[in-house]
Design brief:
The chain is of the alpha+beta class and 359 residues long. Helix content is 38%, strand content 22%. A 5-stranded mixed β-sheet has the order 6-5-4-7-10, with helices on both faces. Strands 13-12-11-14 form a 4-stranded mixed β-sheet.
């Protein structure tokens, strides 16, 4: 039987329980600033529809023990889908916000709408089967694609996939029978996730500064993401920071993304004399097979030469300066309470994080 939809009246209660975790029912009205009778009615409906569950009791030694309420994580799951230029990333999240699992795969050569949809379906069903979830238990899908998207979830155009006016939201909703949100760029999803469950859960505003294959700065204020007319607000990677520098995919020269994204850093490293590179990086580039930009960057920062005269050290210092400039522009533009550094450039990269923070 399909799960009952949550009414707007009850949604506030569910959000508070989701944010606080197991919570005594009598404290919900205080947290929400609502009348106890209103909150108790919402709790009764949420328990009846199985969105909430009683998970134990809390006693303070006086009176009746208080019943603890929590989001029922077994009621279903949410899915995240990121359609990148060459890769597909899928994630499964329990109803209480717990990340269950994620998987990545290379996109097949079939970039037709049906081909990509079938690959999404294969990956999602594989993840769901590991947790005994049926397709009917999918509560919602959040899809990101690195392309302009209109307010109806239609992909306006995608050069990488050869798509034009593809109703991605409608296709996913029809296939899975659940609510679907499509946004232009997975970093918008990352920003919202940080606001709901991560570094921004206790503040009103944050900027998620993403640096990986691309560079962007997404702003969330009071739970709402600033997305723009085509879901592309925050494309700070196309601000020129090095006039006359490397050519960007957008056509300009010296864009932040063209000089300090993962692929840009990897391309610059490949141009350096091999004798000037640290041994682990040199050995990786000598090896056979595909050389991933992410691994090149990881090795470069991990084995960063100490001497300032090293060509690699100078390159990484310049990259750090450019990224700090981008982060500073994002802070100046949005005035957030929290700045979150995300993307694979910052993952397990203390050297870069400290450099950007110091700058």
């Amino acid at each position: 039987m399909p799960l009952s939809r949550v009414s707007p009246t009850d949604w506030g209660v569910l959000q508070v329980v989701h944010r606080l975790g197991a919570t005594p029912q009598h404290k919900l009205a205080t947290h929400m600033g609502r009348q106890p009778s209103t909150v108790n009615g919402a709790v009764k409906r949420l328990l009846s529809s199985e969105w909430l569950a009683r998970v134990g009791q809390m006693t303070n030694g006086r009176g009746r023990p208080a019943i603890l309420l929590a989001v029922n994580r077994t009621v279903g799951c949410f899915a995240g889908v990121d359609v990148a230029a060459k890769d597909l990333h899928c994630a499964l999240v329990a109803a209480d916000g717990t990340l269950l699992e994620h998987a990545s795969a290379r996109l097949s050569r079939d970039h037709t709408t049906s081909g990509v949809m079938d690959q999404i379906d294969l990956n999602l069903r594989g993840l769901m089967s590991r947790y005994d979830f049926q397709p009917g238990q999918l509560l919602g899908i959040w899809a990101g694609i690195n392309s302009p998207v209109d307010e109806h979830g239609v992909v306006v155009t995608s050069a990488a996939l050869g798509w034009h006016a593809v109703p991605l939201r409608g296709l996913l909703a029809e296939r899975y029978g659940c609510d679907v949100l499509v946004q232009g760029g997975s970093s918008v999803m990352h920003a919202a996730a940080e606001a709901l469950l991560g570094a921004g859960r206790n503040v009103e505003s944050l900027v998620y500064f993403h640096a990986g294959r691309g560079i962007s700065a997404r702003f969330v204020h009071r739970g709402q993401a600033l997305t723009g007319a085509t879901e592309r607000a925050g494309e700070i990677g196309h601000v020129v920071v090095a006039p006359g520098g490397a050519k960007c995919a957008c056509g300009n020269h010296g864009c932040l993304e063209a000089v300090s994204s993962g692929p840009a850093i990897a391309a610059a490293i490949r141009k350096l004399p091999r004798r000037d590179l640290p041994a682990p990086l040199r050995d990786y580039l000598r090896g056979s097979g595909r050389h991933e930009a992410e691994e090149i960057v990881r090795l470069a920062f991990k084995h960063r030469p100490r001497g300032a005269r090293s060509p690699l050290a100078r390159l990484l210092s310049q990259v750090t300066s450019y990224l700090a400039m981008g982060a500073a522009m994002a802070v100046g533009a949005y005035d957030p309470q929290v700045l979150v550094l995300g993307g694979y450039l910052f993952t397990d990269n203390q050297s870069l994080r400290k450099g950007v923070h110091a700058a």
